[in-house]
Amino acid sequence: MTVGTDIGLAVSVAGLRVGYGRRVVLDGLDLELAPGVHGLLGPNGAGKTTLMRVLATVARPEQGQVRLLNEDVTDRAALRRIRRRLGYLPQDFGFYPRFTVREFVEYFAWLRELPRAEVPLAVDRALERVGLLDRADDRMKHLSGGMLRRAGIAQAIVNDPRLLLLDEPTAGLDPEQRVEFRALLRELGVDACVLVSTHLVEDVGTACTRVSLLDGGRLAFTGTTEELVAAGTDGGSGDSPIERGYTSVLRGARAVPR
Ligand SMILES: Nc1ncnc2c1ncn2[C@@H]1O[C@H](COP(=O)(O)OP(=O)(O)OP(=O)(O)O)[C@@H](O)[C@H]1O
Predict the structure, then answer these.
(1) Where is the ABC transporter domain positioned along the sequence (predicted)?
(2) Residue nearest to atom 2 of ligand 1 (CA)
(3) What is the number of alpha carbons within 13 Å of residue 201 lying toward its C-beta?
């Protein structure tokens, strides 16, 4: 697979510390991501959404450096450039219920400062990629849960982002849609950096080239999908090779005193 080289390291995080009040959620995290599709796994409460929010520039780190698309997020002018080239699907996203699907996606195209002349085509293309073009004129409040999620993915990709952050994008999608979504992920990962947080390890196995596993705010594993699978050959419980890798790595990480 060819990967775009113009963005180099799309994410470079060093010594990241984030907390809520006195509670530390991410503790000295280092992470580097190049273009490609990266899975982000971890148990409930591991800190995946918190990390996504920092990378989406909607949450601020207490400590540490965050460079996105080769720019420093603490520089205001750079931050604006980063946000134009960033796509983010939050775990829970809000919308105006009376907006049509097209208006919803157009709104995000405007937020990301897409040139006005490019908006109609970009919106149609994003809706087509998620299979919602035929519902473009429906109101958001009339969509099913899976369709809403697809509208959320459409807004995240409308600006053809170089860094795409998807927090549990497959939640609520039916099996056929999930298969199509994985194909879309592989396509997007050719020249962008895509980070997908999920609890569905089979999504990672089929669509991601690399995977990072968070546990208790720390990185328990980062490597290729094959390396995670290999970690499960000497034990680990689960129904598939990648599930066994996941449980084996978690068990190993928890055996190391902090
Ligand atoms: N706004 C908040 N205020 C206080 N604590 C929070 C807040 N948001 C998250 N937390 C805590 O931070 C920790 C990490 O939460 P986070 O949502 O990042 O985990 P996660 O890995 O995404 O979990 P899940 O898989 O359940 O979505 C959890 O212990 C959570 O209770």
Answers:
(1) 11-241
(2) 20
(3) 18
- Centre of ligand 1 to C-alpha 50, Å, is 7
Query: Angle 252-257-258 (CA atoms, 0-180°, nearest 5)?
Result: 110
Does the beta carbon of 50 sit less than 6 angstroms from any atom of ligand 1?
yes
Q: Which residues in the chain belong to E strands, given as ranges?
A: 11-20, 23-33, 36-41, 63-68, 71-72, 86-89, 163-167, 193-197, 210-215, 218-224
If you measure from the C-alpha of residue 44 to the centroid of ligand 1, how many angstroms do you get, rounded to a whole number?
A: 8
Distance 90 CA to ligand 1 centre (A): 13
Q: Cα separation of 31 and 186, whole Å?
A: 21
Q: Report the alpha-carbon distance of residue 189 to residue 192 in Å, rounded.
A: 5
With 70 as the cut, is the pLDDT of residue 3 above it? no
Please tell me if the CB atom of residue 256 comes closer than 6 angstroms to any atom of ligand 1: no
What is the CA(4)–ligand 1 centre distance, in A? 33
Return the residue matching tokens 């809520």. Answer: 20
Identify the sign of the CA torsion 38, 41, 46, 49. positive
pTM for this entry? 0.93
The edge-to-edge listing of strands for the beta sheet with 11-20 is 23-33, 11-20, 63-68, 71-72
Residues 6+ apart with CB under 8 A from 116: none
ipTM of the complex: 0.96
**What distances in angstroms separate CA 52 from CA 13, 140, 156, 166, 184, one per listed residue?**
12, 25, 13, 8, 20
Contact 196, 39 (CB under 8 A): yes
Write the pLDDT tens digit of every residue in 10-19.
999 999 999 9
Helices (H) and strands (E) in the chain, counts: 9, 10
